[in-house]
Amino acid sequence: PAVNTLQLLPGFLGNERTGEELGSIGWQNLINFGIAPLEFENHDDYDTIEQGDILKTENIRDQLKNKNNITIKNVTQGTEIKVFHTLSDRQLQALLDGGIINTFKKEKEA
Q1: What are the percentages of helix, strand and coil residues in the chain, rounded to 5?
Q2: What is the pLDDT of residue 25?
Q3: What is the Cα 85 distance to its own chain's centre?
């Protein structure tokens, strides 16, 4: 995706928990659907995001692959938020494939 804002989607759908607080099933389901379950380095950053803010990441695929911390730019406010992931190699591959179904398809074609 050109602008990767969906990683924050669970919080904006009323689930204010992040990372392991989502529970293993919720967290894995995000990966299954190609949504990165990112965690805030500073949990207080969550409260700085307002409805309607435009959030942007750059080169997120590379940052995910390299297990780098990821910077999300809040274009609206002119601020940056640091996030990270703790995905296994298998989970990361499913995420990069766009979800587990795509991973299964790719493995079947191989």
Answers
A1: 45, 15, 40
A2: 64
A3: 8
CB 65 within 8 A of CB 93: no
Give the pLDDT score at 51. Answer: 87
Task: Please list, residue by residue across 19-45, b when 16 or more beta carbons sit within 10 angstroms of its beta carbon and e when fewer do.
Answer: eeebeeeebeebbeebbbbbbbeeeeb
pLDDT computed for residue 33 by the predictor: 87
> What's the half-sphere exposure (Cβ side, CA atoms, 13 Å) at 41?
10
Strand partners, 81: 72
CA 81 to chain centre: 13
Q: What angle do CA 69, 64, 90 make, to 5 degrees?
A: 130
β-bridge pairing 70-74 and 39-40: unpaired
Q: What strands, in cross-sheet order, belong to the sheet with 55-56?
A: 39-40, 79-84, 70-74, 55-56
Q: Which letter does DSSP use for residue 17 in this model?
A: -
Exposure class string for 67-80: b at 16+ Cβ within 10 A, else e: eeebebebeeeeee
